[in-house]
Design a protein that fits this description.
The chain is of the alpha+beta class and about 160 residues long. The chain has helices at about 5, 25-30, 35-50, 90-100, 140-155; strands at about 55-60, 80-85, 110-115, 120-125, 130-135, 140. The chain has 5 helices and 6 strands, in the order αααββαββββα. A hairpin with a 2-residue loop joins strand 5 (about 130-135) and strand 6. About 30% of the residues are buried. The protein binds zinc ion.
Amino acid sequence: MTRAEFDTLKNPGVFTKDYRGQVLMTPQVMASTKVSIARLIDGLQEFLKHHGELKVVIHCLWEKSGHTANSKHYTGIACDFHLTGCGFLSAYELVRQFLEEVNLADSTGWGLYPDWNYPGFHLDLRGKKGRWGYYGGEMRGFDETLKYARDKFGKVS
Ligand SMILES: [Zn+2]
């Protein structure tokens, strides 16, 4: 993504810092992250405006290491994030609605990570549907992970 492409995003503030408060958009991350995933996350933040004081907090975009083999992070079409302003289960429902609304439910990879310190999600633009979860130190099925999250977070989320 070029700086000019970045400047077309409606919510550039979402991309300023990562969840630890570190600078997210280094020149290398900017250059290596595809504008398509940035637009998807930007669109999610737009969508959330209709649902209260919610914010996307990005964990990472493009990264050169630290993910599974063939991770879409390595090709710059993935984003890990959580939402602030609501719990994991509400966030799950909002992301689900958003993917339906933008007609990308069948062309995205979506992973559920309820055990992260900041429970959240992986989204990528792989061009086909991928769904999975991760908890207890293992890759799991999407529905199984959702059930785990419902047990873990219950109604308070
Ligand atoms: Zn990821």
